[in-house]
Amino acid sequence: MSELVLYDFGNSVCCQKVRITLRAKGLDWQAIGVDLFKAEQYDPAYLKLNPKGVVPTLVHDGKPVIESTLICEYIDQVFARPPKLIPADPWQQSRMRLWSKIVDEGLFDGVTELSFSAMFRERMRTMPEETRQKRFRNVGDPRRTDRFRSTYEHGVASPFVVHAVAAYEHAFRLLEEALGASGGPWILGAEPSLADINLMPFAARLDFLGLLDLWTAGRPRVEAWWAQARAWPHYKSGLYDLITAAEFAEMRNSGPTIRDGVAAHLETIRRGLAQAGP
Asked: 169 and 41 in one domain?
């Protein structure tokens, strides 16, 4: 029997999409926690598995697989049991991977900035200065450091939060169109795929923060997709059931602190899109 070990961190969106995929495929795994707030991702032993110093990492029979999007595809390809989450048709595969790109190239940074401005910024404020500067140094990537510092200093007024709001607006506008073209209820049609799984944690985070309705209002197909996703057993067992009561409370309490600022950014972005035309 194959041995699967998942190095993860509780309320990480990237870990969540891997766990949903594992649940959908009916697989068991050993979970090893990597506490990002204690900088355990920079432990030399972990960096041998994942040189980027991020989570998750899946180790399958002693071989590490990194990058959550690639991990999800690996799981579906290696474990042939149903359901198949990567469509057989190459064109449908390209549509699925388009959603992977939308998530990886826009929503990943977006959810980080929104989450940080709502929740983690306050944690940083209460840290001793030496610990806070260590956190900045440990980011490693200068672009990430710039985003990190900007959101810490300016909160929801940071331009990177504006970029986050725009990324979500782009994604949900395309999602409404894609669901109309496919006939739903899932992104590619009648059955869920990795396109849906990759997007679920990024919608869930907004939902838990009490912000999702800012984007879904007036988009009935997106609202129906989200209702379908929340009811899917593998979403519940792979994501919802693995969030602690304390994490739910933190998100529920912190989201409203940035709602007005996010709504203002969204209004400005939509006004600009309307003026730009098709």
From this structure: no
Question: 95 with 18, same domain?
Answer: no
φ, ψ at 204 (rounded to 5°): -60, -40
The order of strands in the sheet holding 57-60 is 30-33, 4-8, 57-60, 63-66
Would you place residue 137 in the very low, low, confident or very high pLDDT band (cuts 50, 70, 90)? low
User: How many CB atoms neighbour CB 40 within 10 A?
Assistant: 17
Beta 57-60 vs 4-8: how paired, if at all? antiparallel
Q: Based on the domain organization, do 113 and 40 belong to the same domain?
A: no
Q: What is the pTM of this model?
A: 0.92
Chain centre distance of CA 217: 21
Owning domain of residue 209: 90-276
Joined tokens for residue 135: 């956190």
**What confidence category does residue 133 fall into, taking pLDDT thresholds of 50, 70 and 90?**
low
Nearest to 7 by CA among 28, 30, 32: 32
What total of structural domains would you count in the chain?
Answer: 2
C-alpha 169/C-alpha 266 separation (Å) is 8
